[in-house]
Design a protein that fits this description.
The chain is α+β, with helices and mostly antiparallel strands and about 350 residues long. Helices cover about 25% and strands about 30% of the residues.
Amino acid sequence: YPSEFLMQKITEDNQIPLHVNVSASLQYVAGLKGNALIDFFHNNIAEVENEELRHLMWSSVLFYKAPDVEVMACVLLSTKAIYFLLDDSLIRAREHQSDFWTQENSDCENSSFHLSCCFVLKLNDLQSVNVGLFDQYFRITGHSADHIVTCLTRDSYNTHTFIQQLMAVLSLLARTPSPEPVDKDFYSEFGNKNTGKMDNYELIHSSRVRFIYPNEEEIGDLAFLVAEKMDGLTNLQSLNILLYVLAFQVNHVEGSASNCNLLQPKTLILTSSDLFLFDEDYISYPLPEFAKEPPKKDKYQLADGRRIRDLDRVLMGYQTYPQALTFVFDDVQNQDLMQNLTLDHFGE
């Protein structure tokens, strides 16, 4: 430690997504390579002398206590903990909730010294990991509301890689083994005898951390919800969800300093007949065990929905990833003109 392969890998992974603006402190971290990155971790972040950095990832994160603030973070996985190096915007957003985030740093404001805060989740406190639909995000749950974080990778490869690395690190933890399970058949293992309903697919790691994956019913529930938003025009049996992807809706803000584009997180769902944008709650569901009441918002809230038959053209940008798509719809106040003509000419 550190091996040549590890240094090469974390150097390659240490890249901030192009569409994100971050604070100077995080830009400094993103500029580190190889040994400098390893030294930075041990000198500034690591809490124990003998812990090893195993994986690095840049991702948007959401906290259970601040569900409306998505913030960019450098996520560092070591053999002892998961560290989230956070952008300054979270400190401002959480001022009303915790004294920790509001420490006076006035001495540093006008100097070249940039401060960043680091949220630490010890691996020993980790209880479960919920993987989102199509591996677009995952939620890490500890023992309290302060220890629930969702990483919005928006990328199945990054999610899969992090989960694999996390499982490998958890295997090194010395925890007392669970009692040997009694052999169960498939139905008693995964089904609830009272309701007959299938539970989510769950893998219990040797460290006793639960990895929970969505099952087919979650897609079924989503299809039902989408059909409901389509005013019952579609037969649920024939409704297929072709694409589910976490994306951004681009709103151009004129009159600002640089006519900037504002990115709003949205869940895009494509069916055989419609295109939908949803505001999705990525942090509150499924409900944590200590939750006293359901969240204030539904998991999916419809933001926009258009029919594919009204799609006139799709404009593609030439920039590198992330790719920008513009959908141009030719719908006159959502009216079906042919239907009205038929009624006018052939109706009684």
